[in-house]
Amino acid sequence: MLTLQHFLIASVLMFATGVAGVVGRKNLFIVFMSIELMLNAVNLSFVAFARFMNQLDGHVFVFLVMAVAAAEAAIGLAIVILLFKNKESLNVDDFSVMKR
């Protein structure tokens, strides 16, 4: 039988993997995938709490997080494509344009 703790442990592991991907990787696509992984970890915890507390509030928050993730993916991918056209690289260290 799966308990709330099992889902929360899975969520924490997914979130930690996402944080490690954002902090440790240099490729922009991997950074974006890691951010999506962190958002999905949050969604898993919301759904788990909603399921075990028999309330629908968690499901509503999941839809909000999914909308934010979709917007982030669309805007982020457009920025990455423009940066790749200008620099022809996806390495994070090559982009010092934002520092000015």
Task: Describe the protein.
The protein is an all-alpha fold and 100 residues long. It has 3 helices and no strands. The chain has helices spanning 4-24, 28-53, 57-87. Helix 2 (28-53) runs antiparallel to helix 3. The radius of gyration is 17 Å and the shape is elongated. The N and C termini lie far apart (54 Å). The mean pLDDT is 89.
Question: What's the short version?
Answer:
This protein is mainly α.
Helical amount: over 70%
Q: Give the distance, in angstroms, between the N- and C-terminal Cα atoms.
A: 54 Å
Low-confidence stretches: none
Can you tell me the overall shape? elongated
One letter per element, helices H and strands E, the order comes to HHH
| Portion in strands | under 5%
| Largest beta-sheet details | none
Oligomer: single chain
Counting helices, strands and paired strands, the structural category is mainly alpha
List the main descriptive attributes of the protein structure presented here:
100 residues; single chain; mainly alpha; 0% strand
How do the helices and strands line up, and which of them pair or pack?
Layout: H1 4-24, H2 28-53, H3 57-87
Helix pairs in contact: 1-2, 2-3
